[in-house]
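User: I'm putting together a teaching handout on how multi-component assemblies are represented. Below are the sequence lines for each component of a complex, exactly as they appear in our records. Could you produce the 3D structure of the whole assembly as C-alpha cells, so the students can see both representations side by side? Please keep the chain order the same as the input.
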Amino acid sequence: MNAPTAASTPAIELVGIDKRFGPVHANKNINLSVAKGSIHGIIGENGAGKSTLMSILYGFYHADSGQILVDGKEIRITDSQTAIQAGIGMVHQHFMLVENFSVLENVMLGVEGGPLLKRGVAAVRAELGRIEREYGLEVDPDALIEDLPVGKQQRVEILKALYRGAEVLILDEPTGVLTPAEADHLFRMLAQLKAQGKTVILITHKLREIMAITDTVSVMRRGEMVATRKTSETTMAELAELMVGRRVLLRVEKDEAKPGPVILSVENLTVKDARGVTMVDNVSFQVRAGEIVGIAGVAGNGQSELLEAIAGIRKPASGRILLNGEPVERLDPAKLRKKGLAHVPEDRHHMGLVLAFEEYENAILGYQDDPKYLKGPFLDIDAIRKDAVARIEDYDIRPADPRLKTANFSGGNQQKIVLAREIERDPACLLVGQPTRGVDIGAIEFIHKRLVALRDQGKAILLVSVELDEIRSLSDRILVMFAGTIVGEPAPHAGEQEIGLMMAGIGREAAE
Amino acid sequence: MSAPLGTLPRWVNYGLLPLLNVAVAFAVSGLVVLFIGENPIDAVQYLVVGALGDGEGIAFTLYYATNFIFTGLAVAVAFHGGLFNIGGEGQIYLGGLGAAFAALALDRYMPWYVTAVVATAAAFAFGALWALIPAWLQAKRGSHIVITTIMFNFIAASLMVYLLVHVIKPPGNMSPQTRLFEEGGQLPKLGWLMQWFGLDIGAAPFNVSFLIALVAVVAVWLLIWRTRFGYEIRTMGTNATAAVYAGIPYVKTVVVTMLISGGLAGMMALNPVMGDAGKLQIDFPAGAGFVGIAVALMGRSHPVGIVIASILFGVLYQGGAALAFDMPNISREVIILIQGLVILFAGALEHMFRPALIAIFAAKPKSRTASAAGAA
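Assistant: Of course. Below is the structure of the complete assembly, with chains in the same order as your input.
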C-alpha cells in the first residue's frame, strides 16, 4: 500500500468534518492530519466528540459535510466494510469478541472464505503465525476468549484488525480495562507496530499515556479540534488546560485528617463468588470517622466483591462486619441504609441508576420507603421532585431537568445524581466505588471536593478505585489489595512505584 | 458521544406507529380476502359496520373488549416487573371457579351487587393463587415463569374439566357446567349506559364488569406510577441489579407482582361467567389470556393504551363474526388469520417501521442527548 511518495502524504486526512445529532453539534468543522507511521493521540473530555469523530472515520456515522482522505485519496466511507477495505482497523473500548470461540475463530469471523471452514482455518492459522512473528503479540490461537485475561483479549482485537490488512489502527480508550503491566505491554506493541510502518490513532483521556507514547497529540473540546501539538513540545499541564479550557487542580487540596472513633470494622471477611471461588480472603481493616481509606488494586483483585459484601449485596462466606460496633453482615441493603451506610456503587449504569427512569425517580432509588417521600400507600411525587430539584442545583447537575430520562445525562452528571442521593442522606459511613470512572475533569474535581467535605464533617469513607492517582490524592490511609487479600498499607506519601509493586503482588512475594 | 438513538415524539410513538402497524395488517389481510375472491373493501365495510354499526354491535365489541382489558392489564403488570405471564388462560379459568362459587353460594339470598363484590374478590383470589406457585418457583428456584405459567394452563384445563364433570355439575345434567345462577348471581346488562348515547343494547351481553374493568384500569395506573410498590416493580423490571442495590426484596416483589397479575386475569371471568352465560362452562376463557399478551404489547403496557388496544381487538372479534356471517366465503379461520396478522404486525413486528419513522422525525424533535448534557 505504501506509495513511494508516502513520506509526505498523511495516512489519514480529515477536512472540515461536521456532524450534528439533532441540536447537538458533536463535531464542528474538524481538520485533522495523521502522519504515516506515527502514533497520534486524540485527547479530550467525555463528550468532546472524540468517539464521534472516530466513528465517522470507521463508517458508523456519516458526516454531514467534510472529506476523508486516505493516503491522499478522497474516499467515501459508507460503513465499516469500506473502512476496512481502505485499511482502517478499530479496537473498540468494549471488545467485540465471541467469548466461547477460540482466538482463531474470532479472527476468522466474517472472513471465513466459504461455507466449509477447513481452508479458511488453515489460511488464518498461517497468517496469524506470520503476524505473531512480526509483531510478537503472544496469543495462543487455540485459546478460548473467555479463558484469556483482558489484556490478551485486546490483543486479539488488534490481531483481527491486522489480519484484515489494517494500515491505520484506531484504539478507543484502550487502557481503561488494563493493569499497568498490561498497558505497558500494549504500548510496547504499539511502538512495534509503528516501527513496522503502521499508523496508530489513540483516543484517550489519560494525559500520562499521551505523554508516554504518542508522537503528535490533538486536543478536542466541545466538538472542536482546539490544538495539535508535537508531544515532545508540550506538557501535561498545557494539555489539561487545553482540554477543559481553564486551569485545573490535578491535586486535591485537603487538610490533615482528624480521625475519630471506628465506624466501620471488617473482621476476617471472606467472600466467594457464584462459582465458589474465593474473591476476598480473610480481610480485616477499620475505617474511622473523619478519614478516607482508599483501597488500591488492579481491577479484579476482590475490591468489587469486598465493597458489595459490606453494602449487603453479596453475602459473605465468613467473617464479621461491624457498623458503629453492631454486627451487620447479615443485613440487606435496605436495612443497612437505615443504619447509616450509603453506597455509591462502582457501576452506576447497572447498579446505581435505572437509566430508563426519569431523573427524579432515580433520586430516591434505595430510599423509596422513606416516609418523607410517601403519602399513605402513594409516592409523594411533589416532595420527591422538590428534593430532586434542590440537589440538581446543589450539585450543578446538567441539564437541570428532573423529568429528563437518566440515560440522557452525561456520565459525569449521572455520577453526580448518584453521589447527591447518597451524600445528602447524611450517612455515617459512605462506600464509594470508582467515583470518577468515565467522568470528565471538571466533574472529577467537583466530586473529589465533595468527598473531602464529607470527610471533614466527620464521616467515614471507604474508597475503592483503580485510578492510583485518585487513591493517592484522596486517601488518608491506603490499603493495597491483591488476589483477594490486603497485601499492605503503604505510608500515606509512598511513591507510585512502591504502591504499583504492591498492586502487582510483588511486595508480598518478596516478603514471603 | 451518544449514538443517534432518535427518540420519537410521543404522538408518533404512541399514535402513528401502532396505527401504521394496524393499517399494514389490514392491507395484508386485504390481499388474503382478494385471493379468496371477495372484495376487500366490502369486507372492511362488513367488519366495521358489524362491530360499530349499531348499538348491539358496539355493545358486543365492548363486551369482548372488557375481557381483553382485564387480561391486557394482567400481562402489563407482570411485564413492568420483567415477568412474562403467559398463564392468563389458567388464571381466568380458576378465577371463574372463584366467581362461580360466590354466585352459587349467594345468588338466592343476596342482591347482585353484594354477590358481585364477593365474586370479584373470589375471582381475584383464585386467579392470584393460581399464579402463586409459578411465582414462588421463579422467585425461589429460578424456574422460568414462561414455562411454569404455560404448564399451569394445562393443569388448570384438566382440573376444571375434572371439577365440572365430577364435582360441580348438578346431578342429572348432561353437560359439564354448573346450574344457572339466579338473578342475585348475575351481573346486570348496561342497557341504560347504551341508552345515554341513544343506542340499543339488543341481545349483547355487555354488562357491569365493563365498569369494573375501568376501575381496574385506574387502579393499575395508580399502582404502577404512583405507589412505592409500583416503583419497586418497575425498578426490578428495568434493572434487576439496581433493585438488589436498592434493597428491593426480590422474592416478595416477584410473588406479589404475580399475585396481582394473576388476580387481574382471574377477574376477567366475571364477564363471561356472571355477565353473560350465568353459569360456569367448560373452555369459557377461549384464548382471551393469550390475546391479552398482544393487547399489552400493542398498548405499550400502559393502561390507556391497553383500553384502546382492547377495543381494537373487540372490533376484530365482533366485526369478524359479522364478516363471517355476511360473506360465507370468508370462514371463521380467515377471521382468525386476520386477527393473527394484527397480532403479528402490532405485537411481534411492532418495531418494523421504527427505523423509518426515526429517519423522518428524529431530526426535528428536542431530543436532548448525552452530548448535549455534557456540553451544556
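A couple of points students might notice: Chain A touches chain B through 60 residues (CB under 8 Å). The radius of gyration of chain A is 25 Å.
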